[in-house]
Amino acid sequence: MARRQIEMVWRCSSCGHQNLGRHALCQRCGNPKDASEVYEMPGATSAAPSVTDPALLRMAEAGANWQCSFCGSHQRRYDGACANCGAAQADGRAAQANGRAAGSDVGPLGLAGALPTQPKDSRRSLGLLAFALLGLFMTCSCCWVTGLVGSGGVPARVDTTTQKTRFIAEVIGREWSRELAIDRYQRAAHEGFADAIPADAVEREALGQRHHHDEQVPDGFTTEHYTERVQSGTETEFYTERVQCGQTCVPRPQQCQEVCTPNGNGFATCEDHCTGGGEDCSPRYCDEQRTRQVPRYVDEPRTRQVPRFRSEPRLAEWYRYVVWEWLPDRAARTHGSEGEAPRWPTEDELRTTRELGEGERERERRSETYVVRLRVPTRELVLRPATEAEFAAHPLGARYHVLLAPDGSFRVEGPARDAH
User: Fold this and answer.
1) What residue numbers bound the domain in which 50 lies?
2) pLDDT tens digits, residue range 143-156?
3) Per the domain annotation, does 126 fall within a domain?
4) Hey, which of 24, 117, 130, 349 would disulfide with 332, CB 3.0 to 4.6 Å?
5) 166 CB-side CA count, 13 A
6) How many structural domains does the chain have?
């Protein structure tokens, strides 16, 4: 690492003359240097000449100056007494190693070129906020008014949170239907194998043997020929293996910069600080031919005996039997629209000429369906009440608030008594 000494300068606060660092007195007015007059680096330290004179080198390497406590002047470290007033060095104090790099300009807060921020105008910000809120209100109002009247003059409104549309729907049609079915518990004849006959079956009658299933039975053996792969010695195999065979190195560039540090005595010590250097290496790989012994296989013929099967039919007895069960016997249906009250089929409509036999009985099954048709501007909706009371609660011409979803589903929210 290169090391050298350079000479700094200081400016006289009395006459403004720039003096070399070697001088303790101003070369123009003769006033001694004091603590307020700092040493300054040359404009370009790399271009500053190195100190080679033995006397100047002794002065540069002697250490920081000391300051006289009586007159305030700076004195060399090897001076035993003040050259200005004669005071002894033991009565003085160490001078500050004041020196600054040329060209630096840092403010009192340590920030170069920092500017104070300009406060914002709070009244202007409030005005912009009020204008934005007014524009949002007018936009929402326009959307509300546009969606308030649907096609056909029927009031409609879009719920922007769910994308569902509210309509006023009118009942334009009503339909109903009722069905009364009679089941009879009676004897019923069936046929099947014994394993399918219920436990309560009566009047079982055998009808002879029928095919029940096929069974696989052994029928000797068959010789099967096949090939088996077996090992038969070894053989030499040649292959290529990638192995490390040295390394590849690339020089790393070195960068050096001279750094000068004030000595506190009008001189500065400059040294080269270097980074980088050396080299970056990575492994290098090569392909090498290798051999190895691997097993050798051959195919050998083999035989084996495998069982053989044949399919034989199996017969079982087929039966006719009788069981008691509920079977549909007869049914009647009534239906109507607006102006006809829902009713069930009468006994005459369900009358039968076949009397109940011994042990027979009957039961009823009732079902009813109600349909209410609603009209909205965009389509026709169908409402299906579950009971007659709900059906009666939707008379012809009644109007309701309906919430219609984009997928076609809807919900009746209540009567629209105030709709015009």
Assistant:
1) 1-104
2) 333 333 333 334 45
3) no
4) 349
5) 17
6) 2
